Structure formats: C-alpha cells, structure tokens
Protein 1
Amino acid sequence: MSARTSIWITGDQCSMKNTALKSADKSNSVVLMIESVKRGNQIQYHKKKLVLIYSVMRHFALELEEAGWKVDYYKEYPDFADAVKKHFDKHKTQKLLIMEQSEYGANERLQKLIPKDIEVEITAHCNFISTKEEFEKLHKSKDSRVTMENFYHVMRKKTNLLMDGADPVGGSWNYDKSNRLPPDKDFKWKEIKRFEPDQITKDVIKMVDKHFANHPGSTDNFMYAVTREDAVLAAKDFIKYRLNEFGPHQDAMLEGKPFLNHSILSPYINTCLLHPLELARKAEEEYREGRAQLSSVEGFIRQLIGWREFVWRVYWRLMPEYKERNELFAEHKVPEFFWTGKTKMHCMQDSLKTTIDNGYAHHIVRLMLLGNFSLIAGLSPLAVNEWFTQMFVDGYDWVMVPNVIGMTLHADGGYVGTKPYAASANYINKMSDYCKKCHYDQKLATGEKACPFNTLYWDFLIRNEGKFKSNHRMAMMMKNLAGKPDHWRAEIDKQARTIMRNINKI
C-alpha cells in the first residue's frame, strides 16, 4: 500500500480542480486546511477580503467532505506552524502535495514548516492557461520585454477563442476603441447579484471582527459569493444581464455606482471558485449566438486570458526585484484620506468610500482615479502597492505588483505599460459625473479652487520632463508642456508644493 498523503489547500486554492487534490488518491489521503490568524494579520487586509477567504475555505471543506475526502481543518488557529505540526503528529503521513502558491516566496516559506522526513511535491497552479515557456519564447533576449497585446494574440490562438481559422473574428484582435464611451444618456446597467451570508459566513464575520478589528473596512453588508455554486450564479447573472453592455461604457465612472456593467468575478477567479477559461468560453458562446456584441465579449475575454495571464507571467519572471522598482523616484507617503475617504476631491471621496465599503472598485477607478492620483502626486510605489493589496477583495501580490508598480505608477520604467497613465481633471470630467458636484474647479490648475489633479498632473510632467521627452506616446503631452511659459511653471511648482505639504487637507 502506498504512503498516506496529505494535501495542503490554502485560502485562494479552493477548487475541485486543484492539481494537488487531483494528484491524490481520495481513499488514502487527508486534506489539510488552516485558518492562520497570523497570516491574516500579515498586512492590514480589508475585513471583507478576510471574510471572503475564510468563508470560502469553510464552505470548501464541507464540499470536500461531502465528496468523500477526509479533511483536517484548523479554525482560528494562531499560525500555520502549530497547525502543521499538530497535523503531521496526528496523521503520520509521509508525503505532502501542495499546489503552487500565487505569492513569490510562499512555496519556500510553507515548505520550511514541513518536517524534514516528509516528501513534498508542488503541483502546477490550476487557474492559469499559459506556460512559462510560452511567455519566454516571445522574448528576444533575457532583458527584452513583451507587450501584452502580442502575448494576448498567442493566448487567443492557443485557446481558439474568437478565432476564424488563423484570423481573429471580425478582423481585429482588439476593440478597445469602441469601449471608451462616457456615461451619456444611453448608458444603462443592471445591479449585480448579491448573496446573503449563511450561518457559516455569519460565524466567519464574528471571527474576523474578533481577530482583525483594526483592519480597514467593515464586515457589514457582506454580499460576495463564497461557494462554487454561488460564484457560478454570479457569472450567469453577469453574462445574461451585463456582458452585452459591458464593453462600450467600461471606462465610465458614476457617483455611488461602483459596479455598473462590470462582472465582479475576479474575487471568485482569484480564489479558484471560477476558472477564467470557462468564463471566456461562455462569453464567446454569447457572441456566437448573437446575444452579446463583439466589442464587449472581446474586451471581457482580453481581461481573462490576456491581461490576467500577462501580469501573472510578468510577476513570476521579474520578482523579487520588480517589487522594489521606483523608476520615477516617488517617495511621498500615502495620504490619510486613502483610508478614511475624507477629502474635498469629489471623485476621490466617492471612489474611496465605495472601496472602503465594498473592498472593490472597477478597473478604471483603480487606474485613472486612485492610481492616477498616486502617480502624479509621487506616492511611494511600495506603499501604494501595499494599500491596493490590502484594500481589495481580489487583491493578491501577483495581481497588484505588476498592476501597481508597472501599469499604474510606471515605476518599472515602462516594462508593463509603455507610457504612464497620467491624466488631468479633463479626463475625469469626460468619463464621469464627479466634477459637477466638486469643491474644486476642473478647469483650473492654479489658484484656491484649482483641481489638485490638474496641478499635480502638470507638476508630474515638469518633474519628469527629461524622462518622457523621448517617449513617442507622450509626444502630445510634452509638446503641450513645452509651450508653457516659465512664470506658469513656477506657479504650478508653488501650488504643487503647497498641495503636498497639506495633502491631508485637500
């Protein structure tokens, strides 16, 4: 008879497709699951993220038991180490299977906790469709970069999604230009599906309030799915009611409306309750059957098999040094209002409030409001990355590092994105309804009523003029800057310094 096996499943791996689980013999194995309070306190994670993770774990443990697996579950345990010791003392297993962790260095940290005489096998992650080899083949040299768009073409061909033989359906790989409409009178959406906490989730909420009382956010009004069954219902709801409308207005922002036509499925994909490929194939079916427009379906599929896969590969290619990059030498602290939402900037006030309330904001709010402000204000990349990681229910190290360090803050010098996503209030006014009710005037860059986004935008360009003057994607911005007189530059510099000195009062 073969050696008895343990299978360690962590909180973001709760899937029957977990490769460690699929590699084991059910009759001769025991599943180890641990709620580590110490891990939950590693950084100040949003309370709703902790509720999501721990509730997903408890529900999945029950699902495993119903499927005939033996589960050794440790609730509210102080740390991994004590639980691991207790598990191996109790079960005397000789081998441990564990699916690879999503965070750099986590595989090694977990292995250090395992007794020396235990054989450890790490299996491939189940929720990604690309391989390291596919990504590396696209690089011309060790130090070269690959654009997401080129990588996305490879993934489309590999999966045959939205393909017509060797060509993309409709003749174009990317329909982003059709998906940038402002929130006009024709904009419509349907509210997302919410899930009432069951008794298990209610117990988890009590546990989170007990152990993580000082963490940001609240456990009130928890609405996320915590089982595979409910996550599938959430996906069906999006596909039926919001997928067709998702594309055109996906960049739009509205006061008090954090979800609009976005899917809100990333929390479930990143905990393995849903697989990106199953969602992409269902979206493609909606297009093929004439129920969803191509621009919406392509945009959704690009997020799933393009961007998500791309940031995963960038993360694992460049860590750990990538996280430390600070190409623009940004060093300011994250303002206090990022945790409280108390600011006179209406756009930031609303987006921060919905983030604090829900642990969520859609991608344009993250990039062009929260991230844009962080970029032009020169906030520390490490500090901003930590804030994003702790505040969002779908935030993990592999998600946030390339998105924040690379895409959002341009701290990687252009590895992920070839230009910084810096914008003035003009963009915010065009794509939202925020400016109408704001304390500041979106047309002004200097003076008492000047919008901080305007002042800091121009100051950002001035500070980094030398770096950006040769960037062809910044040519128009730098041309506009070049035409500004010296006295105007001096006014911008003075006002920007005043803003940064009094940043928690703006």
Protein 2
Amino acid sequence: MRRRDFLLSSSSAIAATTFLPSFASSQESRSANSKVNVAFIGSGGWIAQQPYKQGCSDENLVAFCDVDSTHCAENLKAWRTTQPFFEDFRVMFDKMGKDIDAVVISTPDHTHFAATMAAMERGIHVYTQKPLTHNIWQARTLLKAKDRFKVVTQMGNQGHAGDGIRQSVEAYRAGLIGDVAQVFCHNSGPQMGGQHFANPTVMPLPEAPVPAGLNWDLWLGPVASRPYHPDYHPAKWRSFYDFGLGMLGDWGCHTLDTPVWALELDAPTKVECLARRDSLAGVIPAGSHIKFHFPANAKRGPVTLEWFDGPQDWNKVGRIDRFGADHAAYRGLACWMVGSKGLLGCGTHAGVPTLADDELHQAWKKNPPTPSIPRVAGGPFREWLRAIKGEGPEPGSNFSYSAKLTEIVLLGVIAQRFNTTIEWDANAGKIVNAPELNASIKEPVRPGWQYGEELWN
C-alpha cells in the first residue's frame, strides 16, 4: 500500500466510526506512518504562523503558497524553509499534489472554498480557517465533498478543541442552568479605520499601484476584477462583503460555537437585523444588532440568539436582569446562555465558563459535572494531524459540524448586509420572504474558479 493510500484509508476509518459531538480522544499513540507531508496556502501574516507554531512544524513541510511573496517573506525566513514556493495553489497541486498529504488554508474568506475543494478533489486532507466559506452554497458543497472524498477536515475555530468549551457543554447538559431560551453574544469591534478594518470615504475605492510581489489577479480569485487598493490587502479585506464577512465572520464562528454545540442549534427559521449603523455600499457597518430564531427540537424549546457588534450602551441593550447579571456584557464575557436556573457565560473563543448567580458558580467549581466529552490532546492542529495518521478520532470542528455553524453565521451576515429580516427554508436552501436575496446564497465566480458543481449533478 502506498503511503498516501494508507493515510487516506486509516483516516477514513476513523471518520466512519466517530459520532458527533463527542469527537476527540486524549489518548496518544505512536504514529504508524511517520510524518505527514503538509503544504500551506496563505503563508503571510500572523494567522499563518498558528499552524507552524501549534504542531505542524513537527511534520514534513513540503510546499508553501501565497499570492504575495513580499508579505510572507518574514514568515518563511523565520521558518527557515527551503521548500518550493508557489503563487497559485492550482499550480502547486498540479505539480506536487501526489507529494502532499494535507494542506492548511489561511487565505481571505472569499478564496477558502476554491482552495479547499481543489485539495479535497485530490484526496488531500484540509484544515481551513474560519469562516469555512463565503456563502451558504459553498458550505453545503464542502459538506457533500466531505462525504464524497473521505478526507479529514477541520475548520479553524480553535476554541472547539479546548477544555473550556467542553466544560460549558457538560454544565448545560447536567442541567445546572436549566432550560435555555435566550442567548446573548457580543463583540466590541470592528474598529473602523484601525489595523484590521478599513473606513473608506468613497466606494468603489480608487485605483492604487499594485505592490511589488503581489499577484493581484490571483488575490481576487473568484471575485469580479477591480483595481487594487491598500484597504483590500493585506489586512483590511474583512471590511468588504465581497471578500470578508465583518465581525460575524471574524468572531461568530468562535463566540457562537458554545451555544451551537451545547443547544444543538441547527439552521434558524428567521434572522432579523434589528439595528445597523450606516455604511457605504459593500462595506460592513461599524455596529449592528442581529436576532436569530431557532426552532424547538426534541431536547429543548425554541431559542433566540442576539448578536451585537460595535460600540453599544450595554445598560440599554442585551439586558439580562436575572441572577445578579445586569446586561449581556456581564463580567466582560462575550456569550451568555440564559437558563431558567442561572446563566452560563464564556469568552470570545469559548473558554472556561462562568456561571451566575455566584453561588451556582462556586458550587460548579467545587463539584463540576463528570467529564463526558473526550478531551483533545495538543490543540486543533494536533487533533487534525492525529486523525490523519490514524491515531485519534475525527476532529471536532470537522465539516459536518463547521458547515452548519458557518451557515448560521452567514445567514446573520446576509440580514446585516441588507438591513432586513430573512425567513429561511433550510430544506430548500432558500430565503422565502425576499427571493431577490437568494443571489447571496450562491455568488457568481469568474471563469477558471468554478468548483464543486459536479457534486450537485
């Protein structure tokens, strides 16, 4: 058996026998197949440093790809790599695909899908940063691709691999806060005009010279051509709906992770944009208030989840006037599940829970529920790599889970972008009250960037 075939068969066996949501094991074992050959798409910026520092550097780093050779030069120098470097991941896969077992994708949101599909079609395991995709059709297509190609998949909402989120889910399942009907989540960003978010005064942006080392056409990828402007690249693309998804895309996959897992939230039936600051066409607002409506399931009643971003007067919005808490930012935490017996709060990246009232929290600290969800050893990248090697079960944020979480986030982004209420038919995959918005479910792509269509035929 060839090495690639061994890696695929062993990891597929794991995926076939792992059930959500108890995904991971803390048991380490010796690798039966030595090191994994890992490639990187998106090698510049701090986000690309995560996989290198958090486990991938122990494997064989066989290829690097980035559309901006200047932007990633410092990282490659620090990593002391002499491996092949490519501008275009399609060229990398054509030339080296047989030598690549797994790939980490750390590109802007609008190119996640194309890079991920190109890898999966070749039987290459994928770790894709959050949000998984830029639109809902892409998320559902990657779920189909996971079933078709049987590779190990993982989305980079790293808190999902931590102990803290497991403690939160276990506390809820033990009934410590009772029945939950409300969730409040918030983030104080974006800081428009800061390091990561642009504050343009006019749209479309005027043309500027393309920096040396940047292949601007490849950076655009599937999106319609337009002139370069430094507000797009390297750091502020999240401000523009064509490329990023604002604060919901940036933080929603982290902060909503705990309630989605604990409450087993599937797609909402309705999403309302209750408030939104003004913004130029195609640009995210500096603040918004989004309300998701989730139907009841066999284990709980209906749930509403409210998301706030941007500067807020927390004495007026997101109030929780129960159990000693006065608003959704109580103790500075980013997410609160409101139960009939108490509150459970956690941080932006999930993390260790806080329970309110204080007596409930102290009781939980003294006698927490018996752990029922297996723990992950080594963090999200080690979780993914161990599954590839056949050493551990399927990663927790595999595409069966993360595509669902991403779809929830994307529905909020659509409501925010168009400042409206949308009614969602999950079975049909359509917005039923505003059919003109269905153009956002599957966005047009430029020739040469079509992927995944065959999975729907």
